[in-house]
Structure formats: C-alpha cells, structure tokens
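Budget justification, computational time. The allocation requested in the original proposal was used primarily to generate structure tokens for proteins on the priority list. As evidence of use, we reproduce two of the resulting records. The first is shown immediately below.
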Amino acid sequence: SDPSYTKGTIASTTTRRPTDSTTISLASTNSISRGSGGNNTTNTGTSASYATSTNIWAKLLGGNESVWDGLDGRDDVYDDHNDDHDDLISTKSRYENEGICGTAPLKICLMGAWYETRHFFETLGKHPVIIVVSLAVFGLVCGLGMWAVESEREAFVKDRMDTAKFVARETAEYFANEFRRSMVPLYALREAIQYSKNFDALPSLIGNYPTNLQAENVAILGGDMTQRNITGVCDQPQVLADWKSMVTKISDEHDLNGLIFRYRLWPKNVACLEFKGGEAMMDSGMDASYSPHPFWSQVVIDIQVDRWNGLHVFGPFEAKLPSGVADVFCTHIPLWTSTTGENAFKDVVKVQGTDVQNVWGFTMLYLNWSAMKERSNMYERFENVNMEFELFREEEPRLGDVGPKGLPTKEMTKLAWSEQADKLNEGNSVEVKTESLHGIWINRVGVVGDNGWNPEWWPTAVACVVVASFILMVLTAMTMVKSYLHKDLVNRMLPKQAIRKLQRGQTVVEKYNIVTVFFADIVGYTGAAGSMRPAQVMKMLNELYTELDKLAEKHQVYKVETVGNQYMVVAGAPERVTGRVSAQRVALFALDAINFVSKYQTKEGDKILIRAGMASGPTVAGVVGQAMPRYCFFGETVDFASKMESTSKKMKIQVSEMTYRLLLDCVNLKFVMTKRMEGGIAGVEIKGKGQQVTFWIEKASPCEKCFELATGSFALVPCGHIMCADCNEKYKMLPCPTCRCKVDDRVEWRGKPTKIVDESVEVEHAPVFDEEAGLTSETML
C-alpha cells in the first residue's frame, strides 16, 4: 500500500518492491513522490522510520542507491546463510519450491509437531489458569460420567442381586416344600401302624432283650450289632402282606414317583420289616437298643432317650442304589405305646443303657435326594441367569461317618451346589434362609468372575469415561491456548480499554493531559554490518527491539509501535499517571536502553548506535479505521518528541524543557542533566518551532550521594548501581530503584582510592581491590 501521513500521526507502512512507475526514496527528505500519478504529498508531520538521512536500511544495504535497486536481479538476497537459522516455514517453502521429496516432508512434519507441542506447553506455563480450567473440565466431565456409569452399575447390580435373591428363595422354598411333602408318607405310616392294629403283636412276640437273642457283636460295616432271631415273627405271610398293602397304599396316595425307595419298621427297636423295590420282606433282626453301632445307637438315643422333637433326619449321604451311587436322606420317627388299655405295654425298655417307658419302636424311610434335585431343574435354572449357587444346612449334622447300612458315608452340610460354588464369597453372593423339616436351609447365590456383581461392560465404560474426559480436557486446553494466544497478541497490540470499546463497536478516542513520549532511532553501526543481508538485518532488529520491549515492560511504559528502525514508547497513557511519574519512567527506560545498546553486539561482533529524544505534554490517542486497528497518538507533543530524537546525537538522550522540569520535581530519584549548548547557544533549532532549549540526560540515582563511590556505599549485584548507606537501608527489600532489576546481593565498598598506583595509568581513581568483597572500583562503577 502507498504510505501516507497525517500530521501528528505515527503510522506504519508495508514496504514493497516498486514497479517501474513508482519510486520510493530513502534519502534525506520529508516528501514521498508517486511517479505515475503526478500527485506529490509533502509530509510536515512526524515520520518514525524514513524521514531521516541515517536510516539503517539505507546504511546497511546500499550507498546512495535505492535498497531495492541494489537487490534487483539477485536471487539469493533474501537467503539467510546463518547456520543457526531454523525457520520452519522457510525450510518448508524451500523444499516445496525445489521439489525435494523423501525424508524432508517427514522432517518438516516432525519439526512442526515439536514446535507446536513446545509452544503449547510454554503457553500453559504462562497461563496456569488454563491448566486449572482444563483439570476442572476433566474432573467435572469425569465426575458426571462416573456418576452416570455408577448409577447404571448400581441399578444393574441391584437388579442382579434381586434376581439372585428371588431365584435363591424360590429354589430353597421348592426344596423345602418337596422335602416336607416327601415326609408326609412317614407320618401317614406312623398313624396307620398305630390305628390299624395289624402290628400290635409284634413287640410282644419279639420280646425284651435277651429274648430270642441270636448273636452279639456281629461285625458289620461301620460297627458291631446285636442280632435277634425274628424268624417266625416278621416273616409271617399275613404280616408281610399287611406291610406291603399299607406301604403301597400310602406311596400311591402321595404319588412321589419313586423318590421314597425304601421303608423300614423297628418294633422294640429291632429291624423287623422293610419294603423296597415294590416287595415286602423280613429285615436283619438288628437290635438298635443294644447294638454298639455308632449310627444306630445314636438314632435311638436321639428319638427315644432325648425325645427328639419332630422328624429325625440324617443326610444327605452317599448310598449304593441299583441305579448307582446317589445322595440319600434317611428319616426316623418314634412310635409309642398307650399307657391305658389291657394290651398296653407297661414294661420298661432299656435303650442304650437308659430305661425308657412306653417304647413301641420306630419307623423310617429313605429319600432319593439326587432324584429330587434332578427333577427340580435347578442347575439349568441357575445356569440360565449366569449364577452359581450352594444350598446347605445352617447347623452341623450330629451323626458320624457311617450310614444306616453301616457303609462309610460322607457327612454333607452342603445339600446341593453348582460347579464353581467354591468361588462364592461374601462379596459376590447373597444368602437366603428357609425353614425346613431338616432345619434352617441357606441358599447362597452369586456371580463368579473378576467383576462379581458388576456388569461386564463396567470396566470398559469407566475407561471410556476417563478417555473421553481426557480428550475433552485436551480440547479445552487447546481451545484456551488459542484463545489466550489471540488475547495476548491483541493485548500486546492494543490497550485493554481500547479492545473493550472496539469489541462493542465504539469509537476509541482518549485525551491525556500530560504524557511523556520517547523516540529512538538507529543512526549508525560499526564493524562489517554493511555486508549484512536483509534477513540478517531483520534478525538483528528483532533481537534488539525484543530486548527493548523487555525494558519497556520492566519500566512500565507503553510501547506504541516500531516503524522500520524507529522505536516509540509512551508513559502516562494508556495508564494514567502524574506528569512526574511518566517522565521518570520514560527517563529510566531511556537510560536503560542506551546502556543496553552500548553493550549490544550482533553475532558477527557488530555494534549499533542509536539516538533518542523525549518530550512531555498533552496528547490524544485512539484507533483510526477498522481494518488493521492500531492505537495511535496525535498532537504537538508527539511531533516535538520526534524532533527531539531527530535532532539528538548518537548514544544521547535529548529532552524538552518541560520534561526537564518534570524530572527535576521527581521525589525518589535524582537525575543528572546538562543543558545542550551549540556554539555558545543553548538548545537546538526545531523546524516550525524555532530555537528550543533542550537538555541531555546523563544518569540517575536515588540521591546525590549515590552518584559517587565512597566508603560505606553499596554496589548492587548484578546491575552494578551504587547506593549510599541511607538509600541502601531505604530500599533494602526492594528492587534497584534506578533500573528496577532484582537485587541478588549488596556488596559494601570499603576500599580507599589512591591517586597513583601505576605511573603508566593516568586515571583519577586507579583500581583498588576490596579483599573481602572481591571487587574493584572500576568494576563496580
């Protein structure tokens, strides 16, 4: 775009290579000519970059010719042959232009990814709020997700446990009812024996021990027995016929379909009659009252001596059946004689050494527990709901390790169980208690596996919630990083109050009663800088102005802009402060800037020379236009400050008379300033203003005593500024008041300068070493 100026405006321009019809002159002139249009515009205002004969571009890149004329026809003028150059975009462009393939694109991608990642984390470090908000998003999303997953899991677990309890209760109640129903024939048999009168004579015919004693201590499986001779008593055809008729009728009435496979009758506690396989037969003649067999002796003691309440049940135990080995229950119920009537037994029966009255005997049956379990389909039922179960009695069985037939048995507290029932525990199962004729039955039902009651999808859902929360956290961080990068960029370009007004669509115009404006311009160089290429010049200016930006931030002055090689800062705007404060801030910044530039060197060892100027007064600031908005300052003060810079000298700071008076009024700092004298005339001629009295700023310190190094003074490390003892005490816990640097150490000066130490050195104060501090007067100054 064509550069143009309005008086009092510090404007920037984009320099482009001119066509044949356009000429841009960088020589000493304030006019810009457009060759093709015939319109000439003369700039009478302030130019920040090319209204000077010492423009750094003209000096570094050519003689009297135009910069672009000198570069015309050369293909490599924009190439930067610096080995340290790592511009990713330039590298990428070069690869694309030259058509380089292979590993180059991969290297570019890796470099780009590395730069983006590094920049991302650098931004996170600068803005910890991004980390806090991102972690908050992660915690919130993860918390909500986990709450939802946990709610679904709890509902699933509750439903699964309710199902387990229902199936467990239903199964246990089924077995309890079936077990109770299977015991009904035993009660019916007892009533039939007592009221039919068919077997009333059997006890008297068998008689009391030792009547009809056949043998004692007969060895059988599991122990010994006492055997009575019951031939002619229990094998009578009528007795057998009555026994068969009674048992068959009772079995048919209750329709147990073979679950009860054996009945036995024990008058006088002697094994007399049995029924199995549909046939009635005589039993073994074993006398349980006098046999030492552990099982049978315990049975008669329980039901007759101890008067067992209800049915006496034993099992389940393993027994051999014609169909194979099965789990079996045996149940006993006592029979008692009446104490009245002429046929009533009035004698006493000795049961395992204890006299018991009115003992008739007992009857019993055998229940096929395996068949009952098979008919219940309980295994398929639990398999359908993917659960394991274990049905067991609450109390331990009382009998030993032998069964009714004397065969070795396995006492079982567990009544039924699934294949993996041993893996059930309190954490993965529930228990349901049910009362039965066999005592309290407990059915434990649960889910075996790593998840227990939890659903199979639960670990995956938790992982998905965490991953999704992490992704949202990263996306939030990336979004905030971009937002803060944009915000930081805008904040560096415009003041915050101007940004707010622009965002609301308002016009930004602000008036300031007193500000101090600073201009600096590169006016010279030393070394081989004349051979620098444009890219190298740009790098040098970037390094230089980046350090000046840091100084501006440190001294709390506002950088307005950098136009070409000219640098402008303001104090008192946009942050409003008093005139003295604004002048003080800019003056300290100017001194720091001159000090930095005096020590600055390029990588080739070249040095830069600048000149600076300051002026104070009223000004107006605002944003003009909508495209490419910039915060600009207008007014005579800006023009005057620019003139102070353009008429200044190398490595000097020239200030106006108003700035001089403001600096004299500063309370906390003392400035050393000298009036400018040219040929005996004070000041300098300013175009449009005439002769103006101006001053040079030399240095600044907290007080006048701080300007000289004396015994008791303190040198601040690392800046090297001197403070007297009083000021050192005053600013003991504060940064250096002159340069605002952090003070790492304060070294007290104890040396005594002498006039002559080395005759070959003519100095007012020759170096004196302080042995304790390890410093010299030269290094401290």
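The second record produced under the same allocation is shown here.
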Amino acid sequence: ERLNSAAGQARESYNMCGITAYLGSKEAAEILLGGLARLEYRGYDSAGIAICNKGKMSVKKKVGKVKELKSIASTVEGNIGIGHTRWATHGEPNERNAHPHLSSDSGFALVHNGIIENFIPLRESLMRKGYKFVSETDTEVLVKLIEDVMKSTGLSLEEAVRQALSQVVGAYGICICSRDDPDILIAARLGSPLILGIGEQEWFVASDASAFLEYTRHVVHLNDGEMVVIRRNVGYQVSTTQGTTLNPAIVELEGTLDQIEKGGFKHFMLKEIMEQPVALENCMRGRVKLHPSAPPSPRGDEDPEILPKFSGPHINLGGIEQLVGPPDNQFTLLQRLQSAKRIIICACGTSWHAGLVGEYMLESLCKIPVEIEYASEFRYRSVVLRPDEDIVMVISQSGETADTLAALRHAKQAGCLVIGICNTVGSTIARETDGGIYLHAGPEIGVASTKAFTAQVLVLAMLALRIAQGRTIPDDEYKMLVKELSKLPSRITKILSENEAKICEIAKVYRYAHHCLFLGRGYNYPVALEGALKMKEISYIHAEGYPAAEMKHGPIALIDNLMPVVFIAMQDSIYDKVKSNIMEVRARKGCVIAITDEGNTELESLCEYVIHIPKVSECVSPILTVVPLQLLSYHIAVMRGCDVDMPRNLAKSVTTE
C-alpha cells in the first residue's frame, strides 16, 4: 500500500537527474565521467562523483557541465564509485547542493534521483538529535537518516538502508558506496528508474543503460520497491526493500554504442532528424508486409477465415496479437481493441501530439470513439472509466515519463486494460502495461523529440489499419494505405535532400523573430502544435500552434509584418479552407511560410516561402509535414547560438510532477 501510494497514487515524482555507479577492477573515474557525459541529455545543472580507495572517500563536485567536473576529477584513483548529474529541486545549483552527499564522518556517500516528500519533518527530527546539514537538499536528509539508523541500531549499511527507506515518502532511485566497506555497492528504486549492468567481474548501476553500454549489454531492470546489493568477488543479489530475495531475469539490450554517438553530426538532434528514414524502416520491419503471408495464429493453428485478409499488403503487430487473460477466458489485445467502446490516449508533450494524430486516425479508420488526455491531468480529473468498455493507451518515448506512468497506474487501478507505445525496451511502461508496441526507432538522445514522433505516428497508423482491416474500411483502401506506409522512408529521404538548403535560407531570415504562429487543419493541426513546440523548445522563440480556422478567434490580432506564420497546406479535403486562411494573413501583411504538395504552384504568389513535399494520403501526411518544421526549428536554433541538444530548463527523461 505504501509503495503504491508513493510511486503511483499520491505524487509521482521522478527526477531528471542521472545516476551512474561502478564496481570492478578498472579505474572508476573514467567510467563514471563517461557515463555522466552520456546522461547529459537528461538535463542537469551540476555534477559530482565519489570514489572509495584505500580507506579514503574522494568527492568532487562542479556546477555546470560534466567536462568541468572532468577537469578536477579524472585523476581520482579507485575502482568503486558513484556519480550524479543534478537538476535542482531543493536548493539552488551550487556545490553544496550537488551530489554525492556524505554522512557526517564521510563514511558513505549517496546519490539520489527523485523527491523525498516528508524530508522536512525528517530533517527537523534529525536536527533535534544533533545532526548538522550543509545543503538544502532532501537527499542529505536521507543520508543522515541512514546514518542515524546505523548509529541507533547497530545495523549494517545494507540493513540500515532498508530501515531508512521504510520511513521515507516519495520517489527515489539511490546508489551508495562506503569508505569502510569498499567492496559493496547498494542501489534501490521507488518510482525513479535504475538498471543494473552485468559485466565480467564488474557491475554497473545507472538510471539509463546508455551510461554503460560500451562495457556490457546484459542488464537487470529493477522494479519499484526493489534493491540490489553488489559485492566484489561475490556478485549481486536483488531483493525487495523489505528483504525478500528475488531472482530477476537478465536481459540483453539491443542497442549499440554507435547509436548513442553523434556519428559525425554536429548535434544529436540533426542526426536523429536525418535518421528518420532508417528509424521508420526499423519500425515497420516485420510488421508492414507487401506480399502474401499469413500471421501465426495465437493458438498455434491456421484460421482459414483470416487467410484471405493476408493475400496482399497487410500489417502484422505481434505485440497486440498474442493471447492474454486467464486460461478460461483468453483473448488478444487486438480483439479487445476491435470491440472497444472507447479508447483513451494518455501522453505528454510531443507524445501527446502524436496521440492527437492517433485520435483522428482511430476515429476515421476504425470508427471507435477516442479521447486524448494530458497524462498530467488524467488522474486529477474525475474521468469516468468503464473497464468493460474502455481501453487506455499510453505513449512515451522513454517509457519512464512520470505523469504517463501515473496515468497508467490510475487506469490499471480502475480495472482498465492498458496498452503501451514506447521506444525503450524493458522500460517501466513496457513492463507494467498489458501489452503494446515498441517503436524500434533507436535511442533518441536529443531533448527535442524528432524521430520518436514520426515513429509514434507510424505505429498509431499501423495500429489503426490493423484494427480496421476487414471491418471498417474497404480492402482496396486498406492495401493502398499499407503501401503508402512502406514508401514513407524514401519520401522522407527526398524531403531531407531537397529542402534543407531552402530551409536554411528561411532560418536566416526569421532567426531574429520574437513570435511565430503554426497553423494547420485536420490531421495537420497536431503537426502545427508539434512545430510550435519544437520552435519553443530549442530556439526559445515564443511560438503557438492553432487550428487554422481558430486564427480569427483571437490570434489574428497578433499578425503584422514581423510575425512569421507557418501553414501546413496540403491539397487534402480542406485545402481550400486553409488557402483562405493564408489570404487572411496576407491581408494583414503577415509573413507566410507554407508546406504543401509537390506540383502545387497556387501558393507561390501568396507566400514568402513554399516548401514542397511528396503528396500522400491525408491520414499519413503528418509523418511527412513535420519533417520540414523539425529542420526549420533546428537551423533557427543553431543560428541563434542555442544549445540544441540540451535546451535550458528541459530534460529528455521527464521529470518531476
């Protein structure tokens, strides 16, 4: 009950910070600093490491970037240690508040992601006992609490950690090393992700496997309420924080080191924009099939009734076609989706925009009512959930987004079937949902999401078509759309190769803009929202996305000759309406940039700039129309001198609530 309250119900609070730890025979400093550098995308304002060696605890901290910490910490010797990048929640960014934090006698050091919600009464209690605090953080309270338990009970460090954690309320991912026992690492999680990496007589702990991927791909994902104790020359033992021994599975990660390096690109964001053709190919591999084949039956036989459906182009999504449920009442997730009375999509940020496209697709193609909810609001509203009729779908690139996890758990507690769409294999969302679909887009390091968005929309398109197949759309339309999906990678390659020079030219003209509007209708209204978000995130230009028709209900008052207005104006069912909206902007001397189909010359005289992209079906168009907007935001941000991969105040793996 306490675990559910802290991690899921009361206040889901994951920190953006990064943790890395090492125990083995190599020099820990190099491994810890390298790991912290790979966790920089998570967002942080200070960094530090602690290394045990020959009865001494060496702690180095720096405000700013990991490279500044490296200048003072790279020569510290020892083969066990912990590291941390901090994103301030309690106390301003300074060296006193930076992690690791030490016990009073410097006997052990601790790093912590998350928030201890009852730190104020704990701190007051400890101060009455005579403990002194040098920082403003909740983390130091946890350190002194563990120390107090050891002193008052005589327990070992391991047992004192268990006892102390039973007294805290909130979320945490912690790792501890000891000066007096330099052969032990202790880590525990409740709400904040931690992964154990297993090498040859060496072990790693991190909040993200990218921190140690160059050393091992064999991992154990810790679940909420679990703890791992690693001992040199002995190995590791996972247990609950109450002491029950566990035997979790070892998983081999699919990623490679090359995938988390820049590969010659100036920024991760540019690399990931350019990777989108490959990312979408990987997303469709084994799923989008252009030639006749029959999917394996969940029951191990062949159903002659479904064979005709797979006589041509088709989609096979194994993640929703496996049997679930008790032996006497088994069903596939696909069957539940097809019979659902309502689908509720919960997500945040860019994933919410993808979910909004998904709402349009599912309602149009599948004729199922869909609601899209901000995950951060979902559990705080009195949403009426009907477990027998509703399916909740959660979308998250990382699979660790705090608000989305909280929405997932809220839906599960209400008895709803929950399906997940995420990119990170083995993530918490992947483990806690009833089933789902991986993006297989590869690691996304840049804070501003690009290839994950297009992959999410692609997955939602495949899902909608699979649900609709043979039910709610004609077979020829279904096959035509499947073929269109298969052509998306080559069409994105064409957009990237033919438009970047023009987009750079546009960026030079509008890089000094203070405000910007993005307008679209139908399927491309969510793209307008996403384009505006990208501009805000990385260039710090105030940008807003609207349905184009809503412009005259307020935003039109902002338009003048200094206001760039970006229209997504594909020649679809509402093209004439969008063209009228463009004329309204031109009448007020607004500066218009339009995204439209190849061969459409009607907009040349109405717009300062027109970007042409391949013509596709209306429901598939968001996967293409968003690409020029990604490039435009990227080039404007670079020209403004912004840190594209690590925008101020943002982090990749969101976040505190």
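A brief technical remark on that second record: DSSP finds 18 helices and 28 strands in the chain.
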